[in-house]
Specification:
alpha/beta; elongated; five-stranded mixed beta sheet; Arc Repressor Mutant, subunit A; 6 helices; single chain; about 20% strand; 7 strands; about 170 residues; D-Maltodextrin-Binding Protein, domain 2; two-stranded antiparallel sheet
């Protein structure tokens, strides 16, 4: 089934009418009605009940299930499209580091400078913290990477990316 049909189904439900949905998606109302019939035939059940004399649309139980899955499928397609655009146009976003207080200046000068030149569309945020705070920042999703000067607590929750002889660890959740 074409995802545009699911997107149009979402438009019908969210607009609350075929006319409103047709205006929103720029498709003639009869074509939109036909798409709904095709979708209902595909699933073998009514998805939307329209009441005569009322312009209100009611979702059937099956319609609610299709609505939720359609939202999920369309959001996955949107996410994939966004990721591909990032790959083609260059990586963008924010990378948050949890850094041991004693490592920050050295780490910034030696590592992040080159990284930022390679990935100019990535913003780096640095959070200086003690080892206990670093663990919590990583576990709570405040930061994505940790640069530690001592072994991490909760080691079973993390994967070590690399270690140096000086006991520098990069970890993530």
């Amino acid at each position: 089934m074409d995802l545009d049909i699911y997107r149009n189904f979402l438009a019908i439900v969210e607009a609350g009418s075929f006319t409103g949905a047709a205006d929103f998606v720029h498709i003639a109302q009869p074509a939109l009605s036909k798409q709904l019939r095709n979708l209902e035939n595909f699933f073998g059940t009514k998805l939307i009940i329209t009441q005569r004399g009322s312009r209100q649309l009611l979702l059937t139980e099956a319609g609610r299930a299709v609505y939720q899955k359609a939202k999920y499928m369309c959001s996955l397609e949107d996410l994939a499209k966004s990721e591909i655009e990032n790959i083609v146009g260059g990586v963008i976003g924010t990378l948050r580091f949890s850094i041991a207080n004693s490592r920050s200046p050295l780490f910034i000068e030696s590592s992040l400078k080159d990284f930022c030149q390679l990935y100019p569309n990535i913003k780096c945020e640095l959070f200086e913290a003690s080892i206990g705070e670093q663990s919590q920042q990583l576990l709570n999703g405040i930061t994505e990477l940790g640069i530690l000067s001592v072994p991490i607590t909760h080691q079973d929750s993390f994967e070590v990316l690399f270690r140096r002889r000086e006991e520098l660890e990069a970890v993530f959740l």
